[in-house]
Amino acid sequence: MRIALLLSAGLLCMSAQAASVDVASLDRGTWPEKLTSPALFDVGSRAEILMFAHSLLASETQDDAALKQRLGLKIINLAAINDLRRELWRRLLENYSVAQQSCEVDASFCYLVENMDDLREEAGKFEVSANSFYIDWAAPSHAFHERYLDELLRKAALFPQIGSEVARFGEHERNGDEFNDRLFLLTFDGGPAPVTGNTDWLADYLRKQKMNGIFFVLGSSLQTRLERSSAADVQALYQGQCVGTQGWQYRSHSHWVDWQSSITRSAALAQNLMPENYVPLFRPPYGQRRADSQGFFQSQGLQVALWDIDSQDEPGRLKAQESAQRVLTLMLLWRKGVIVFHDTQDKARVALPWLLQATAQSGLGWQDCREAF
Question: Domain NodB homology: where (predicted)?
Fold first, then answer.
């Protein structure tokens, strides 16, 4: 019976990973203003918050059958979906309350919102008029937020059988929700890439920008990189950066018999090789980890590092520019948090410079990786 349950759980994981879901991206060229000041960042933020809230509110009118059809699932965890909705509304209200503080500078998308009822009311009647300065943005933004909401709801519908970044299993898990407004953390998954590859470029680029991020390494890739270069070369590669772990292999750690060994082995390698760069953080591949793993992580002195802004830069997903524009849209929506790229992909080499240039005058900040969690 136990073997059968494990097999069915594994098949569910694989089907969830392989399922075809439209990935949301928004052409920022439809937005008519550059983010050349903190106030203009707030204008864009208020607009994205209201558009997402409009989609979220509309989704609450759908019954179980309609939700299953919408998400392409036969079984859904409605309690987890409702938990997610409550958390999303909490963040939207918090973010809009901060974003409206600059309404005296620019009143675009400013409405009197003092509590949750106000926000829900404004979301329900939110509409961009045909003669609005922002009309070219309205329809593409609505399509983006419908698809993005589907991404989130689908993950909640599968929770906790399939863990993901949309919900936490305990206080040992972090996702950047405690960051200050306009503060973002850069993270990179799946590396290191082969010698002189994308990891080298990204780490060097960040140093030139006097910035840093957390590189979540795979133990097997780190071991291979070490064997093909040297300890000194690997240490130089991550100079000034932080290094966490994703386990020994990039695979789900929720139903893998050797998941504990995967984590401890890779963490020991990274810590022994780069004690000054190592941070005791585990980034679960696909966001999948066991619901009952808190005791293990606490015994190892580790925290689980999740994220809330996914670039979707994996192979077969978004192109580099689409990935960058998705990230910027989600930065406007969530106003703080953890951004994830993959340093084995070359898309971040295009997306990250574009992102920094687009936000250079918007008043946001980048979280120091050593002080993130």
Answer: 179-303
Total Cβ atoms within 10 A of residue 268: 13
- Contact between residue 225 and residue 194 where contact means Cβ atoms under 8 Å apart: yes
Q: Which two tokens stand for residue 297?
A: 């992580």
In sequence order, the 6+-apart residues with CB closer than 8 A to the CB of 233 are 195
Same domain, 310 and 189: yes
Strand partners, 243: 215, 278
Per the domain annotation, does 298 fall within a domain?
yes
Structure tokens at 339: 């951004």
In terms of C-beta density within 10 A (0-12 exposed, 13-18 middle, 19 or more buried), how is residue 235 classed?
A: middle
Calculate mean pLDDT across residues 127-144: 98
Element of type H or E holding 265? helix 259-273
Same domain, 340 and 311: yes
Q: How far is CA 67 from the centre of its chain?
A: 23
- What is the pTM for the complete model shown? 0.93
Based on its alpha-carbon atoms, the radius of gyration of the chain, rounded to whole angstroms, reads 21
The pair of structure tokens assigned to 246 is: 């994703």
Query: What are the beta bridge partners of residue 183?
Result: 365
The pLDDT score that the predictor gives to residue 324 is 98
Residue 244 has pLDDT above 50, yes or no: yes
Place of tokens 């802004």: 309
The β-bridge relationship of strands 365-366 and 183-191 is: parallel
Q: Residue 83 contacts by C-beta under 8 Å, 6 or more apart in sequence?
A: 156, 167
